[in-house]
Specification:
Length: 274
C-alpha cells in the first residue's frame, strides 16, 4: 500500500474515548489493515495496482456501511482535511460554540500521536474520541466505524478531523456526507495545483487565517482560480477562525450543505487516483 499512501501500517493505532477520566482502547484492527511492506526490488505495476484496488475496495465497503449507519440516525458527517497547522482545531472549537444548543456535535480526532487536539475539543464542550494512527498518515473507514460505535451519536453533526496531510486522506472514503479542505493563507496559493486530488475531492474549501492576508504574500484570486480548475463545483469560504470572520457562512454551510437524498447511497466524491 506504500505505493498509494506511504503509511507504514495500522500497528500502533489507538482509539481513545474522552470522558472526565479518559479511557484508552487499543485495537489491532485485524481484518481491515492495509499492507505497508516497502519493497525496493522491481515489482510489476500490476501487483501494485491490484493491491491498491483491493485495499480501497474493502475501505469503500466499510465506508458504505458507515454512510448507511449515519443516515439511519439522521447524522451528517463532515471529513475535515488539511495540512498540519491550517487551523482545523481552532475552527472546530469555534464551530462547537456556534452550534451549541442548536445542533448536537461530536468530534472524531485523528492524529499520529498525542491527544492535544482532543483535549481542546473536550474543553470546548463536545464529545470527542481520539484516533491515534501511529505511523499511519490518514483515517480510514474502519477506524471511523470503531469511533462511531464508541461515541454512539444520535442526530446532529459528526466532525472528523483527519490526520494533517494533503495527499492520503483524499483516497479514503470514511462514509462522510461532505468533505471540507481547510487551507491557510500561510501555506501559499499554489497548493490546489500541487495537491489537486484532495481539492478535487472536496465539497467545500475553507481559506483560513484571512486576518493574516496583510502580512503574507498570498494571491487570493489565483488560489480561487486554481481551485476552480480542479473542482469547479465546490463552495469556497473565507474564514478567520481566530478572529471570527466568515464563521457564520461556514456554520450555515454545515447546516444546509449535505444533500440528504444521496447520503445513504453514494460517496461524497469519487476516488481520484494519482
Amino acid at each position: 500500500m506504500c505505493a498509494t499512501c506511504g503509511c507504514s501500517g495500522a500497528a500502533g493505532v489507538r482509539i481513545t474515548e474522552f470522558h472526565d477520566h479518559p479511557h484508552v482502547h487499543d485495537h489491532d484492527h485485524d481484518g481491515h489493515t492495509h499492507s505497508h511492506t516497502h519493497r525496493h526490488d522491481p515489482t510489476p505495476d500490476t501487483e501494485t495496482l491490484t493491491l491498491e484496488v483491493r485495499v480501497l475496495a474493502k475501505n469503500d465497503e466499510l465506508a458504505a456501511a458507515n454512510r448507511r449507519w449515519l443516515a439511519d440516525r439522521g447524522i451528517v458527517a463532515v471529513n475535515l482535511m488539511s495540512s498540519p497547522g491550517s487551523g482545523k482545531t481552532t475552527l472546530l472549537e469555534r464551530t462547537i460554540a456556534a452550534l451549541a444548543g442548536t445542533v448536537p456535535v461530536c468530534v472524531i480526532e485523528g492524529d499520529q500521536e498525542t491527544s492535544f487536539d482532543a483535549d481542546r475539543i473536550l474543553a470546548a464542550g463536545a464529545p470527542v474520541l481520539q484516533v491515534n494512527t501511529g505511523s499511519g498518515c490518514h483515517l480510514d473507514a474502519a477506524m471511523v466505524r470503531t469511533a462511531l460505535a464508541t461515541l454512539d451519536p444520535v442526530g446532529g453533526v459528526v466532525l472528523v478531523e483527519n490526520v494533517g496531510n494533503l495527499v492520503c486522506p483524499a483516497l479514503f472514503d470514511l462514509g462522510e456526507a461532505e468533505r471540507a479542505v481547510i487551507m491557510s493563507v500561510t501555506e501559499g496559493a499554489d497548493k490546489p495545483l500541487k495537491y489537486p486530488h484532495i481539492f478535487a475531492a472536496a465539497t467545500a474549501v475553507v481559506l483560513n487565517k484571512i486576518d493574516l492576508l496583510p502580512y503574507v504574500d498570498f494571491d487570493v484570486a489565483r488560489f480561487e482560480r486554481d481551485v476552480r480548475v480542479v473542482n469547479p463545483r465546490c463552495r469556497i469560504l473565507h474564514v478567520s477562525a481566530t478572529r471570527g470572520d466568515g464563521l457564520s457562512e461556514w456554520v450555515d454551510w454545515l447546516r444546509v450543505a449535505p444533500s440528504h437524498s444521496h447520503v445513504a447511497d453514494t460517496p461524497v466524491a469519487p476516488h481520484v487516483r494519482p
